[in-house]
């Protein structure tokens, strides 16, 4: 059975972690698949949005530390090596997800733990079911933070709550995750596929280049002065004016209809 499933439909790429018997714990094959898909989505103009989710009622329980399937290949499939180098591979993959020039959506049902939480927080949007559970489990295993959560967690929930989650490793339910700002929305579990499909479709049908510019603007906002942000807006707007989608957006406004963007 494949560790991940990849489905493409009209510009929407859906990646499903597919080890339900392990609560979708991430093994070497999982990382290799994610690495490959990120390269494809980055370079393929027909891939316009990415959704990450999990099979069997869970997002992912984090890294597979059982050693049963990766005894010779290591955590990431590149052979046994120092954990420093393993984590640099993982970090590079998650950074590429964070920097993907197309919108990304994590759809979380059930558990989202450890490095899997890092994957979810590296996405632009996080949609969760009412039975989703989030956990920064590292300290309970004697481990430091990874998956980019030392950076993403305090930016979403603030430093005090980030320390609370990281020090204690307690499970955070979906409603609290929403109230703390960790995720975007909570929906009933039986409605999650429908709402996720609608969100994914809206992202894939959007003006792809413009969305990539907006993503860069917002991600960079914390490190820019107001003056720098204004200059970046001017340059980004100049680029947006060159796209066919911008022309379609104006045309649809004048014709009083919904725009039909092509991602060009």
Describe the structure.
This protein is α/β, with parallel strands linked by helices and 264 residues long. It contains ten helices and nine strands. The protein folds into two domains: 4-204, 2-enoyl-CoA Hydratase, Chain A, domain 1, CATH 3.90.226; 208-254. The longest helix is centred in the middle third of the chain and has 17 residues, at 83-99. 39% of the residues are buried. InterPro entries: ClpP/crotonase-like_dom_sf, Enoyl-CoA_hydra/iso, Enoyl-CoA_hydra_C. One of its GO terms (molecular function) is isomerase activity. Keywords: Isomerase. It comes from Pseudofrankia inefficax (strain DSM 45817 / CECT 9037 / DDB 130130 / EuI1c).
Which class of secondary structure composition applies to the elements?
Answer: alpha/beta
Gyration radius over CA: 19 Å
CATH topology of the largest domain: 2-enoyl-CoA Hydratase, Chain A, domain 1
First-last Cα distance: 37 Å
Number of helices: 10
For the record, what CATH class of the largest domain applies? Alpha Beta
Which strands sit side by side, in order, in the main sheet? 1-2-3-4-6-9
Protein name: Enoyl-CoA hydratase/isomerase
GO molecular function: isomerase activity
Organism: Pseudofrankia inefficax (strain DSM 45817 / CECT 9037 / DDB 130130 / EuI1c)
Keywords: Isomerase
Summarize the structure.
The protein is 45% helix and 15% strand. With 264 residues, it is an alpha/beta fold.
């Amino acid at each position: 059975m494949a560790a991940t499933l990849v489905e493409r439909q009209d510009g929407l790429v859906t990646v499903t972690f597919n080890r339900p018997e392990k609560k979708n714990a991430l093994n070497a094959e999982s990382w290799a698949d994610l690495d490959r898909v990120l390269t494809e989505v980055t370079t393929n103009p027909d891939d316009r949005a990415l959704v990450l989710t999990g099979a069997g009622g869970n997002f992912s329980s984090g890294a597979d530390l059982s050693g049963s399937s990766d005894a010779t290949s290591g955590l990431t499939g590149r052979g046994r090596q120092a954990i420093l180098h393993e984590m640099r591979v993982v970090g590079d993959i998650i950074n590429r997800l964070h920097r993907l020039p197309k919108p990304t959506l994590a759809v979380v049902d059930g558990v989202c733990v450890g490095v899997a939480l890092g994957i979810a927080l590296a996405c632009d949007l996080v949609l969760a079911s009412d039975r989703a559970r989030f956990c920064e489990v590292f300290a309970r295993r004697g481990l430091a933070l990874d998956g980019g959560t030392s950076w993403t967690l305090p930016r979403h929930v603030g430093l005090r709550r980030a320390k609370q989650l990281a020090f204690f490793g307690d499970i955070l339910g979906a409603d609290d995750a929403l109230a703390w700002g960790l995720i975007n929305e909570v929906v009933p579990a039986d409605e999650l596929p429908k709402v996720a499909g609608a969100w994914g479709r809206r992202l894939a049908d959007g003006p792809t280049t413009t969305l990539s510019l907006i993503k860069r603007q917002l991600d960079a906002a914390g490190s820019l002065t107001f003056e720098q942000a204004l200059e970046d807006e001017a340059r980004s707007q100049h680029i947006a004016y060159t796209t066919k989608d911008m022309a379609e957006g104006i045309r649809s406004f004048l014709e009083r209809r919904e725009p039909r963007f092509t991602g060009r």
